């Protein structure tokens, strides 16, 4: 079993969260409770657990969401065992996004909701090795809202503040290398950071964090066209390391940086 805390997104804002990766064969977790949300993805096998008076099963491709303070256990469905990855998200973090709304409760503890699964994958897997605290803020926003929707309580829709969004976008365009936190955008745009996140998505179709990542990929492409090495392009575009650069580039382009350099697309662009 491996367990590691994630650096807090901001000093004094969020405490670090714990993430684990574990394989269980022929053993069981006795009944216990967490004071956090358990957000877990079964990676292989079948995970069985008793929760709210019934035995549940989590399969690969599903997401397990356990509400804080709910008693549960965990055991193998068969002799093959199972493996899973999980993140433990404090309810205070979820509340920061939802702004005082009742904590969402996901019925039965297991969901096949595509948006919730995608948000959980980002929180549990994609953010695990990323040190940029803005990545956690972005994942937290998506997870909290996906849980809220899965619980049947969609957030109230408000008219988007276009002026605030444009101010935030202009600031992000100047902060490609250095990066930006939601707290900075809140100050620049004079708008609550979580409302700004909603409005940014509504008007521009992406989150502030992902908008910044796309601008970093654009800058890295230009540096590569100018002859930079992969390492220099990653550093020059503001990525924490070459591994993070590679993952982000592939998500944005559909190719690794090396494959893009060898592609007809790259040769066509530079002719």
Structural commentary:
By secondary structure, the chain is of the alpha+beta class. It has three domains: 2-150, Jelly Rolls (Sandwich); 162-205; 211-270, Homeodomain-like (Arc Repressor Mutant, subunit A), CATH 1.10.10.60. Helix content is 45%, strand content 21%. The protein is built from eleven helices and ten strands. The strands form two sheets. The protein has a six-stranded antiparallel beta sheet. Strand 5 and strand 6 form a beta hairpin. Helix 4 (162-174) crosses helix 5, helix 7 (208-225) crosses helix 8 and helix 8 (230-236) packs across helix 9. The protein is globular, with a radius of gyration of 20 Å.
Classification by helices and strands: alpha+beta
Characterize the largest beta sheet: strand count, sense, and whether it forms a barrel: 6 strands, antiparallel
- Give me the CATH superfamily of the largest domain: Jelly Rolls
What's the Cα radius of gyration? 20 Å
**Architecture (CATH level 2) name of the largest domain:** Sandwich
H/E topology pattern: EEEEEEEEEHEHHHHHHHHHH
Keywords:
271 residues, alpha+beta, Jelly Rolls, Arc Repressor Mutant, subunit A, six-stranded antiparallel beta sheet, four-stranded antiparallel beta sheet
